[in-house]
Design a protein that fits this description.
alpha+beta; Nucleoside Triphosphate Pyrophosphohydrolase; Arc Repressor Mutant, subunit A; 2 domains; seven-stranded mixed beta sheet
């Protein structure tokens, strides 16, 4: 097998910024690092790309090791290549962000990682340049969610419009006009109204909805325009 014998080798890693929604707050999943350097410190979930893997395959493997699940929403964020970003050895990392419904999957999170869900704006100090990853992922999430319905990936199978509005409020840190938000949301045709109501959070109760799976899949690139352009980043 031919090799580029004059070239030095370095490590190739993936890191996953995992966002979750528990019905009240948007959160970030962090873990305690299990090896040196910085053993025991807070970190994103990650791993090294193996010889038989693409970066996407490696990120999917890392997510499955953590959650036991295939098919989570995942999107490549950025390549981080600073020479001294890892204090142990030259390492290039491809970062991905993923979306998880916390309530649905909380029993399946692998406790070997010592995972903790933190409010998105109150996470602990992270190793290396992982905080940069998180802040860039937050910007990307805001931009994409303003245009496409990817935040629905964070929701349980049935939800109320107030719950969805609260999710958008968590992402953008602004209050949305209830009537305008509801009107734009229903005009997409992506939701199916159910007969039962959530009676725990209001006296009248709010109807539950579910996502129309076929329309969602077909219209994922639908331009939503829920969010004013001035607050998308």
């Amino acid at each position: 097998m031919r090799r580029y014998t004059q070239q030095k080798r370095f490590l190739f890693a993936v890191d996953c910024i995992i966002f979750g929604y528990d019905g009240q707050d948007l959160k970030l999943l962090v873990i305690q690092r299990s090896f040196e350097p910085f053993k025991g410190k807070w970190s994103l979930v990650g791993g090294f790309v193996q010889n038989n893997e693409s970066a996407e395959d490696a990120a999917s493997r890392v997510l499955k090791d953590l959650t036991g699940l295939d098919g989570l929403y995942m999107e490549q964020l950025h390549a981080f290549t600073d020479v001294d970003r890892d204090t142990a050895e030259r390492t290039v990392s491809i970062a991905y962000f993923a979306l998880i419904d916390i309530q649905k999957y909380k029993q399946q999170i692998n406790e070997d990682y010592h995972p903790v869900w933190c409010p998105i704006n109150q996470y602990p100090e992270l190793i290396f340049d992982h905080a940069t990853f998180v802040e860039l992922a937050k910007e990307k999430l805001r931009y994409k969610a303003a245009l496409h319905p990817l935040l629905f990936e964070l929701l349980p199978p049935k939800f109320t419009i107030p719950q969805l509005q609260n999710l958008y409020t968590c992402v953008y840190n602004i209050e949305f006009d209830k009537g305008n938000f509801t009107r734009k949301l229903l005009s997409t045709g992506l939701l199916v109204k159910l007969k039962d109501k959530d009676k725990l959070n209001s006296r009248k109760g709010a109807f539950y909805y579910k996502v129309d799976a076929k329309k969602y899949k077909a219209g994922f690139k639908l331009f939503l325009n829920f969010v004013p352009q001035s607050v998308r980043l």
